[in-house]
Amino acid sequence: MGASVERMDKIKLSLFDVFAYMLPGIPLLMLIIEWHHRAPLAFDDVFNGVGSMSVIAMLALLCAAYVLGFSVSSVAFVCFRFGMEHWAKLTVDDDPINLSKRGFEAARMQHLRPSGFDSLHQFLALRAMAYGLSFVFALFAVGHFILCAWCCRLTTDELAVVLGSVTLAVLCFIRARQFLKMCNRVITDTIKEINNS
């Protein structure tokens, strides 16, 4: 019994877990609820439903959002990498898309400059959140559009939701690209500091 309690104490919800998995899981969870009810959700329904939930139900929904966000994170990264490869053809961008190529430098940072590594970890979490949200908002836009067309409820309000979701997907992609640049800058600057000291 003591060993299981001790292991539970070691399970911590990190910044990365919240940003990279839980937040992107929320719009996906809303899409699943819409498809379950076979009707678009109104904002009033969402806010009234969340306001009347018990703490246990809220925790269960957050856990479900975390699992959903975690389950799509790999696909979201593949889509982000695909988008970045095509973006790089349009712009002059020499930053590596996949930071695993800089793994040795990150390992040096972790051992020699933990504060720089902590900054890198925060930017990695924000980058994962941004590309996860980009993917999920795009998925939400497509799913919501199909559901509304199928239910014959393609109103101006529903089209505004779709357009808003597409806009958020694009903005989150751009933000993920900016966080990638920040990750590369943190690695480069910290390695320069290490080499100069």
What does this structure look like?
The chain is elongated and about 65 Å long. The N and C termini lie far apart (49 Å). The protein has 197 residues and is mainly alpha-helical. It has one domain. The N terminus is likely disordered.
Spell out the key features of this protein.
197 residues, mainly alpha, 0% strand, disordered N terminus
Question: What's this, in brief?
Answer:
With 197 residues, the protein is mostly helical. The chain contains 7 helices and no strands.
What layout of secondary structure does this protein have?
Blueprint: H1 2-10, H2 15-37, H3 43-51, H4 55-90, H5 103-112, H6 114-150, H7 156-196
Helix pairs in contact: 2-4, 2-6, 4-6, 5-6, 5-7, 6-7
**Helix residue percentage:** over 70%
Mean pLDDT: 81
Distance between the termini: 49 Å
Poorly predicted ranges (pLDDT <50, ≥5 residues)?
A: 1-5
Strand content: under 5%
Helix-strand string: HHHHHHH
The tally of beta strands, per DSSP, is 0
Total helices: the number is 7
How many domains make up the 3D coordinates?
A: 1
- The SS-based structural class is mainly alpha
Shape: elongated
Let me know the largest β-sheet: none
